[in-house]
Amino acid sequence: MLRSLPMLRGLAGFERSWLRRDIPAGLSIAAVGLPSAIAYPAIAGLPPETGIYASIVAPIAYAIFGPSRLLIVGPDAATMTVLAAAMGVIIAAEPASSNLEPVAIASALALGVGVFCIAAKLLRVGVMASFLSRPILVGFFAGVSLSILVGQIGRFTGVKIESDGLIPPLVEILGKSASIHWPSLLFGLLMFALLWFVRAFQFRIPGPVLVVVVSVVFSAIFDFSGHGIAVVGDIPSGLPSLSLPAILAMPLDKIVLGSTAIFVVSFGAGIVTARSFGSRSGEEVDANQELIGLGAANIAPGLFGSFPVSMSDSRTAINLATGGVSQAAGLVSAATLVAALVFLQSALRILPIPALAAILASAAISLIDVHELRKIWRISRMEFVFSLIAMWGAISFGVLNGVIVAVAATLVYLLRKTMFPRDGLLGRIDGRHGFFDLARFPEARPVEEAAVFAIQGSVLFYNADYVRLRLSAVAKELVAGTKCFVLDASAITHIDSTGAAALDAVAKILEARNIIFAVADLSEEGRDILERAGVIKAIGPDNLFNGREEALRALTGRFGQAGNASASNER
């Protein structure tokens, strides 16, 4: 039956024996996920139970509709930061929005993200998952992590911070240093140190789990609440209920823009996670199918009073490390969190806020991938610069505008890579087959009476002038006696009308020098464009060839016939 239902791919072929591995994996996922489920909502000013709700309903929805056996969805620090920025814009948009419950706004944005995912799947634009390059994402997340770190100042110190940005909150806490609640700060720093101690010595118990247990025990013994250390407070013990947020009462344009930003970051980062773990497990990742899984995983929290989620790298890593083999592990983790919500409510109520700040600060620092930044620096200085631009955008303009900066940086990066296509004159090497770049191979020699020139890249409006100038310069510098110029178009994937005009200009320069302009291995799409632009008529249909060798044989034959005719006329 499971094989006949395509929406249950993560459970297809399920065998009862798998439970021996999926149940321990699910328990481990819940243990690691519970602290972050309680902590992450604070980034967006949401109550802690919303994180637990998201960690329950999202994995269930993904298990039904998601294609992967091993991916686990859940709250994500970067997604929460973009969510916080989007919610701030919506609340500030108009006075009426300030009366809306933050949970309702977060739910509406989750539904918006889910709708975008489904629409993207229907339009088959899963390829946009690769739109944000790895360097851009690494830089953007580094900027997001700094924003999260600054956001924990108030939770560490017990001081209400009213300013936004990176520097203003630091200045504000210095001005309010007399109001710092030192027991809160010391306990938060102690828990932060415990997290790093556990990570440094690779304890078998996850650091966030240990911090939650230790914090709750200390809070119960020393009555933290009575001594001024803020605690989580009452958490509803019931299960999440189905409800639809009042979307029509919200500024729809801001909902759409916020959902777009969250979708771009959530899916862009999520597909990187999916492909990273897919390469380890040997599981193929279909970006378009993942859109369905992620869409369902966001619509479910939107209908149950929660917020947008993404693929969780920490939970997926735990799933792989503990031997999970199907989405049953995600279902077990959801059931475990339901039990925690029902039976551990009193313990979670006294969880100290500084402990949650320590968990968030540790998670934020883990988003700064120093190793990857060093690798990018070693591989490409230009890509490193774009990483810094994305980081600077998230810090200087806010996370929501930082998404726009990251996308703009990606566009600039793509244009920069394609604006100056690689090109060069080709020649032959004695004893070797094929053609070789004369600039790269000193032993290569030009073809007698001919010039072969290759362009590796599209000829479009934004680089057509560069291509025209390059070809014109080469055409004007051809040695005397050159009778034909063969453009190798095998690596030209696209030509537009501006590119056609550039090639037409080159054809006129060559015609003025009595040099035949020939094109080899032109794509059908390129041929249609040049046909409609009149370029083929200008250079002659008989000067289009299927390859360089064919072009040179045919043109050389014409030279020979012309030479014989000239000799006969002289006689």
From TrEMBL:
Primary localization: membrane
One GO cellular component term: membrane
Organism taxonomic ancestry: Bacteria, Pseudomonadati, Pseudomonadota, Alphaproteobacteria, Hyphomicrobiales
Protein name per Swiss-Prot or TrEMBL: High affinity sulfate transporter 1
Domain of life of the native organism: Bacteria
Domain STAS: 440-555
Family matches, as InterPro entries: SLC26A/SulP_dom, SLC26A/SulP_fam, STAS_dom, STAS_dom_sf
Keywords: Membrane, Transmembrane, Transmembrane helix
Transmembrane segments: 25-46, 52-72, 79-97, 103-123, 135-154, 180-198, 210-235, 255-274, 320-344, 350-368, 389-415
Pfam families in the record: STAS (PF01740), Sulfate_transp (PF00916)
Membrane topology classification: Multi-pass membrane protein
Compartments in which it is found: Membrane
